[in-house]
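Dear colleagues,

As part of the handover before I leave the project, I'm documenting each prediction I ran so the next person doesn't have to rerun anything. This entry is a single chain, and its sequence is reproduced below.
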Amino acid sequence: MQSTPSMATVMKGSDTSEYPPLLDACVQRSHLVRKVGYDAQAFLAPNGGAGKGLQLRNLVGPFMESFVGFASNAPHCPGYSLVQEGAANYRLWQQISLPISLQRHKIDLFLAPYNNAPLLLPPRVELILVLHDTTMLKGFRKPDVRGRLMDFYTRCQIPPAVARSRVVLTVSEHSRSEIMRAFPKANVRVIPCTIDAKWFRPRPLSGREGYLLMVTSSAPHKNAWAAIEAYAHYANRARSNAIPFRIVGLSAEADSYRNRLASNGIAHLVRFMPFMPENEMRELYRGAAAVLIPSFSEGFGIPMLEGMATGTPVLSSRAASLPEVGGDAAFYFDPANREEITDALETVLPDTKLREKMAGKGLVQAAIYRPDIVGRQVMAFWKEFAGV
């Protein structure tokens, strides 16, 4: 069993410069009235836990030196110093080892950032649950048995976690309204997502390589295959004028998608790519003619913000939180209507003036979610609940 000091939550090389200078100074001078711990399992993943890990860093970023990060006793990426003790398997650790650690380290407030929480928390511990959305409650079914079982496990944990929570944090007003419909007695607060300030450095559309970009996954609610089929219709109509399609997040299933694309005669136009380091992802956005987001359900929609912040036009589903985040900057379509997705591609991609107008609106809309603005909300929340 490996144990590290209870206050060792410093992210090596971490930077709170994205937060307002006066607030940052307050962080350096303040001390916690209440001891805060959080589930830091996302920091063990090579990709930092994707969207949920990103929001966790947003919430604890200004307090890396005073909050206590807990993770399972499994190998983790360098750069984080965490309390790691107990089981290596995450689910066993979450339900058995983590509550023991919270008791041992005398945690007052525990931040559970992944839509669920331990069923048996110590009585003294107050729970702050991050519930990104209600997608898990909507009946989207993964094709594989293991995926369905894992979703069932998470789905069963959500109601007791909400009931146990002092406050539920979510990432959009849309998600808040859906959570309130499902759990009317819950105390739900909104702190939206943000991204690193380095994203907010747009590149002009002229001179870009000019491909269509989609950052997605194979989860059913992401609606990726419908978007690929819509692109196939667009490409067959546009013929030699069709722009290439780059897809990030489906590289593990690329062969099955290529086999389906072969019959459409467009396999040479579609490139499947794995997730890359953040600096490479930023460059990928800055080379795109447009970003495509076809989801049926999103709690926030980080690719929407990444596209707008880099000056890239966004074509988006008009479902869930996406119109809230995108405002009037995006070109919207019905995700259930593949012909409408095709029409959106045919309308936006060839029209340089329209894309430039969309890019300009996107920069204005993205500014709402700049890290300094969201950082003020984070600071106010922890001042209220932890007494910093």
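The first strand starts at residue 36 and ends at 39. The domain at 197-369 is CATH 3.40.50.2000 (Rossmann fold).

All the best with the project,
I.
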